[in-house]
Each structure stands twice: as C-alpha cells, then as structure tokens.
Design a protein that fits this description.
This protein is an alpha/beta fold and 463 residues long. The chain has helices at 17-24, 26-30, 42-51, 66-73, 104-116, 119-136, 139-157, 194-202, 221-233, 247-257, 276-286, 316-319, 332-339, 350-360, 382-385, 388-401, 403-408, 410-420, 450-455, and strands at residues 2-4, 9-10, 15-16, 35-38, 54-57, 77-81, 97-99, 181-187, 210-216, 237-242, 262-265, 271-272, 290-299, 306-307, 329-331, 364-375.
Length: 463
C-alpha cells in the first residue's frame, strides 16, 4: 500500500499524521508493505498511477476528490468513499467502486471484490472511468454548462435594480438624465508625474466630461508650468487654484467645483486602466442602491502583486480598508452629503474615512474584480512616510470621526481584532505581508523598528 500526498496534522494526537501512521504500522513499514511517498510531481504521479493496481480514496469529507478524479482519468480501478462529490461520477461496478466512509468491513468487501475480478473487468472499468472524467470534467463542457446556468439565473432575476449587499442598503435618489463624469485630481508639486495621470484619464474608453485639476498651492516652478501646459492643451482640463491646505481640503475643493453628476478621484502620480470609468459608470447605472465603485489595484508598472478589493461592508470596513479608496468613482450628491474628506486626517487615511462615512450613511459600495487602477510606489510619498506610530494615530482619528459607528459595531470589531491581529497585516490578504516579521527575525541590537524598515527600505545606493 502506497500513500501519496502531503502530510497533515493529526489534531487529536497533536502530531503529524505520517508519524502516527509510521508508529502504528511500524512492522508493515519495515517490511515494505506500507510506503509513504509524500508529495510527488504531476509527472511522477501520472507515471505511478499508470503502474497502480487499485487506487483507494477513503476520504470522509471531500467536496470533489481530485485524487479520485485523477485516478479515473488515468483509467485506474478506483475504490472510493461514498462521502464527497466524486460519488456523482462513480457508478459502482461500471466505472469504479464505492464503499461506505469509515466502514472497515465495507472497504474490505469492496477491495476483495475488486481484486478477485478478472482482467477483462479491470480493463472495462478503467476505460469507462477514463471516458466518464473526459465527458464530465472537461473544461469546455463544464464552462458551457456554468454559463448556461448563469444565464438562467440572470434571466430569472432580471430586472434586478438592487445589488445584494450583506446589510440593508437604501436606494439613492435617481439622478435625471445620463451621467456626466468629472475627474478630480488634487495636485501639489507633482509635475513629474501628473502628465501621465492626466493622459490615462483623457485616454479612457469613456473619457470624463471634465478633469478638475486642483493645484493646492504648488511651489515648484516646473510643476506650476506643467499645470499651465495641461490646462492649455485640452479644453476638458479645468484648473482650480488655491493656497496649500492639504490633500483632504484639495479633494473637497475639487468636488465642490466639479459639474458632473459622478465624481472620480485620482492622485496625480497614479493612473487608471482605459475601461475603468466605463465599467464603474455601468454599475452605477445598473443598481439603484450603489453609490460608490472601486477596483482592484496593481502597485507600479512592473510589480505583479495585486491588491484585491472587496465590497465595503460594516463592520469589517472599520477594521480594514477593503475597497482601495485611492481612486473611487462616486455619485457627486453622495460625496457632497457624506463623503467629504476630514481635514483632521492631514497625514493620510482621509479617503478611507470618507468611505466609512458614506457606507455608515447607508450608501452601497462595490468593487470591480479586476485590475483597473495602478498605484505608483515611490520613495518619499505621503503613504510611504507613514510609520507605526503614524498609523496608530490616524486609526485613532478615523475612529474618533466615526465614533457612533464604531460604538455600534464594538463587539464585532473586538472579535475581528482578536481573530486577525492588527489591521495593517491584512493589507494584502492573499500574500505574505511585508509588514510581518520574517520567521527568522530577531530583535535588532540597535534602536529601531522592523516595521519602519519594512515599509520603505532604502535602495543600496542610499543605504
């Protein structure tokens, strides 16, 4: 008997399952009657299955046993448990055998029946197993069936004007006529990057009706000249100038000056995919209870890492910024009523706080599940300068500005913190975070904080 696959922890005995098996069946292991192969490559697995007699799959709980499907795909004689989705594929005696999960007597009887069968039966069952998997598990067949089912579901539910949020969300008042789009771009001494951001906006498949470029008192001569150049180059670019008051005030100033029924925010050193505005406006038009749309983000032009975004739901939104608020598309009336940035958050997180305010007011916020926003990672940016203490201060300010919401969701927030730890560890839930210490990390001998170093390491030339 060969066991193939990765080891797992034996929760009851507090040890690895492989160690428990080796201890219990030490004599059989020593005699070579029981072999634990561990994980092997797909190529080796195919070769081993090609030489196998009977493949046993005794799982108690698989939703669809890939091991069982792989054995059938290779034309092997399979004895599998009756617990799991694979039992929908196995027709006992025709393309495999089933035995009751956890019943040793049933497994013994099934294996004896299989081993006593003549070669002709094995050949017939193996061929039938291979044909079953080819017909039932082929991606083209499964994909077509899923699309057909999805079309039935959509047809049965249409027309549906309400997006299915977890919590109740009230419809927003209808905005008459087709949507008009204003992109609001605060700018302070960003002349090196702002042209690229503006080009991405004006080159969109659904370009804005206007781009409100808010010059927040720039002092760099080259940046001031670049703003004048952009203003003269395209009639859709409208510059709003004022004294330097910070990002939050600049964003509010641009929203107040905008003429569109929908606002899209973008920092001058970032850029958007061509279809972002088109996709976002389509969602706002399709659902009466959606007032905010975001998208997944990619950091930089060369970095392959993705920041996935999720629909904004309380209470989790108080713990973690799920919607990537750096480039939201928002109904203007919603933003002016509930989403204006808090000037007290002068060091950052003002966009996250604005989203909390809108969602707490009953506005629905959804994420487009594809990369439509690109965030430029650069040394010296406002976000990269934030350290551990700065984050703690800003979280405190964010919750203070939304105290009633935080108090209403207090027990759930405590449960989340206990389960997940500090929220900044959740920035990229699908990959190891750079803010978590490595497994071999030891405290430095010199004063300092590993979190600070991890957030913005110096290039070798500056280290």
């Amino acid at each position: 008997l060969e066991l193939i696959g990765a080891d797992a922890r034996h929760q009851i005995h507090g040890a690895m399952m492989g160690d428990a098996i080796r201890e219990r069946y030490a004599a059989r292991v020593k005699a070579g009657l029981l072999v634990l192969r561990g994980p092997i490559s797909p190529a080796r697995l195919a070769e081993r299955l090609g030489r196998a007699g009977v493949v046993a799959f005794p799982s108690h709980f698989e939703t669809l046993g890939y091991g069982a499907v792989e054995a059938m795909a290779h034309g092997r004689v399979l004895v599998a448990s009756d617990a799991g989705g694979h039992r929908e594929l196995v027709r006992p005696g025709e393309n495999g055998w089933l035995a009751r999960a956890g019943d040793r007597a049933a497994w013994g009887a099934a294996l004896e029946e299989v081993l006593a069968a003549p070669d002709a039966v094995w050949d017939r069952v193996g061929a039938a197993a291979r044909a079953t998997v080819a017909a039932a598990c082929d991606p083209a067949t499964v994909g077509a069936a899923k699309v057909a089912l999805w079309e039935q579901v959509v047809a049965a539910a249409a027309p549906r004007r309400h997006y299915p949020f977890v919590r109740p969300v009230a419809p927003q008042p209808a905005v008459p006529g087709p949507a008009t789009l204003s992109v609001v771009m605060p700018h302070y001494n960003m002349g090196r990057y702002v042209g690229e951001a503006v080009a991405s906006v004006l080159g969109a498949t659904r370009p804005p009706d206007e781009l409100v470029l808010v010059d927040d008192g720039s002092t760099d001569a080259a940046s001031v000249a670049e703003v004048y150049r952009l203003e003269a180059a395209d009639a859709r670019v409208r510059v709003v100038r004022g004294p330097n008051r910070g990002l939050a005030v600049a964003r509010n100033r641009g929203a107040a000056a905008a003429r569109g029924t929908v606002l899209a925010f973008l920092d001058p050193d970032d850029w958007v995919a061509p279809t972002y505005f088109e996709r976002a406006l389509a969602v706002l038009a399709a659902y009466d209870n959606v007032g905010v749309v975001g998208a997944w983000a990619q950091e930089g032009a060369c970095d392959t890492r993705i920041w996935p975004a999720w629909n904004a739901e309380l209470p989790y939104l108080l713990y973690h910024n799920t919607l990537n608020t750096r480039a939201l598309v928002v109904r203007r009336d919603v933003f002016l009523a509930w989403g204006q940035s808090n000037p007290a958050l002068v060091y950052g997180l003002e966009d996250w706080a604005a989203l909390v305010q809108m969602v707490a007011a009953g506005v629905g916020a959804v994420a487009l599940p594809e990369v439509l926003f690109h965030y430029r990672v650069r040394t010296g940016s406002m976000a990269r300068r934030l350290g551990h203490v700065s984050h703690l201060y800003l979280y405190e300010r964010l919750l203070a500005a939304n105290r009633s919401v935080a108090q209403a969701w207090g027990p759930e927030l405590v449960a989340l913190v206990n389960a997940n730890g500090p929220q900044y560890y959740a920035t990229r839930p699908t990959e190891p975070t750079a803010l978590a210490p490595p497994e071999d990390w030891v405290p430095p001998s010199e004063p300092g904080d590993w979190r600070e170093a991890a957030m913005d390491p110096l290039p070798p030339s500056e280290a």
